[in-house]
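This entry is set out below.
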Amino acid sequence: MTQFYNHQAYIDLNDSQKEAVKNLDGPLLVLSGAGTGKTRVLTARLANLLYSNKTKPWNILAVTFTNKAAKEMRIRLESLIGPSANSVWLGTFHSIAARILRENAEVVSLNSNYTIITPDDQIRLIKQIMIDQDIDIKKFTPKAMSNLINSWKDKGYKPDDINQSDNDFFANGKAINIYKTYQSRLVTLNSADFGDLLLYNLTIFTENLDILEKYQSKILYFLVDEYQDTNTIQYLWLKLFANKSKNICCVGDDDQSIYGWRGAQVGNILKFEKDYTSAKIIKLEENYRSTGRILEAANSIIANNKERLSKKLKTSSEDGDKIDLISVWDGVEEAKITSLEIENLYSCGFRYDQIAVLVRAGHQTRYFEERFVDIGIPYKVIGAKFYERLEIRDALAYLRVVQQPNDDLALERIINVPKRGLGTNTTSLIHSYAKKNNISFFSASQELLMTDELRPNVKRTLQNLINQFIDWNNHNKEISHTDLALKVLEESGYIDHWQNENSIESEGRLENLKELINAMSGFDNLSGFLEHISLVMDGDNEAEAGEVSLMTLHAAKGLEFGAVFLPGWEEGIFPSQRSIDELGLSGLEEERRLAYVGITRAKKRLFITFAANRQIHGLWQGSIPSRFISELPKKIINENIEGNLGADVSSYNQIDFDLSSNNSSYGPGFLRAKQKGIRGLNVYKNTQFEKSVSSVNLNLSVGQRVFHQKFGMGFIISSDGDKLNINFDKAGEKKVVSSFIKIID
């Protein structure tokens, strides 16, 4: 073979990338910043191992985190070395571990034809065990037990390795016993779950040194992608496996370690030099994605983290536009402004599919989805859309039955959600009776309750549910629809259902249910809200210019867009208060890494927004800007944005904008900010009210921002005595009595 250094794939690399590709022996850590071409380096280094005759394809192990990444790397490798790429041990941690386990299954009492059970199968088996051990599965759910077992396996714990203190808090101290029984049942079934794959590998290697030596002699070179995302057992597996040759190259970015909530340990990459004393570190800092100012923002924020390996992104491209920092009044205003800026970008040549809105938490997508639907911006949500999420559909189904008991589809959806013993046999009987008598499912249920067709316990449960719906329907006329919704979700056991699951996923679902209640507060009644939902969920149209991407910051890792919007930069939202409360400084630093990831998704334009107010449980609460905003260099912030209603960010006076202008086209938020001497405020031009605001006198009520308990936030358009015409953000134009509104000053 010719030397790889003459290959175009090597010639096109920059000096740091070439250095990483050429250093083939010994431990190597490639610190690869965002957008610095790590996949190209990994693939080229692997190809160089073969071109240089250092080793054979079957002596190389390349590990990725996703099947997609493994497939992409194999395709690239095939283009460099041809069919021999198929002989490389290339795959995810779990796929490589499954191969080793299949070759040595008998060592851990399995057969080579073992099956890997799905997460659903895992929960079902754990449920059987918990019932056998007389454990209350409503109080301690099988899903929560499954999460606990998985977390133990991610740490490399077998049942005998667990401290009693880690056992006492769950299932009345029976968690370890459930784990032991579960593992025993899996062996009987000749099965393993995903966590077992690496755990069994570790057992095989540590208890059978001859097998370990066989694989250490077979695999001479190790390449690991996304090393910052490894958890404890992956770290232990790699360290043990590569301990003999020490020819291990790990590529990763400590500044992009954002998966601590699922077990990733940023400490693994931070202690690489300690683990391998002869390690060489090469930094990839040349970014090929973003403009200079975007990189300066990312560098400035991440520099505040203490637990990191120093590096600084740079680019040879232009500085680009300044970062647009925009303050808004609330979430509705934030969505409006974002949509206006998106339309402006589109008119300037950006395609919709080059634009992304990245939120910290899934529930934040709701305002943007509704706004995009209202004005016709094509969009897609990576993950389920807000109103299509399971918990939202379930909650809406409950409310649909409260509103209209004869809604068969809704009632059939939630009759056994959460599980209450009304399974398939019961629903089939009710459905058949309803069809035979040409009545609704609800009416059929009521009539069957007057017979002996149902077993006593089923009859009792169904009667309780029907009575609940009747009671909720009566309350629909007596209490607010938001209070009613909360009452339904609590009394049905639906909120308890997700609280008892006690997982990261369930926490997100509970946040979404809270946001659903917030969404309802903008409507007069339950009927109006449900009609609105039907319209929002009505069909998607694919646009020729693609669709705006709407997703969480976690989902955006590895992606890039021409323009990126980062909303909700307020304390408590971003950084997440829960992360700080639970993890302290390490939680805050992971939040900061998440900000770094969000910023570095942008290629040309970056918008950051923060609101002065947020609605929580139907009540308005003031917000303060995220501490991350104060970490942005003011010289790269766009001081000339004409932003909307402002928030007091005087404590963040590192950002100091010119408020001396008397331009009357600025909104009342700007005028209030100027009057109060607020620093660090951007003011966004409110085109909808530009004409009426131009004649605003602060002594008059016209143009003032006001709050109404029923209709929310709005602007005064005109007055007639004590009657005011107000254009509300959500409810539109209404005539109200002045005594019922509060001037926001």
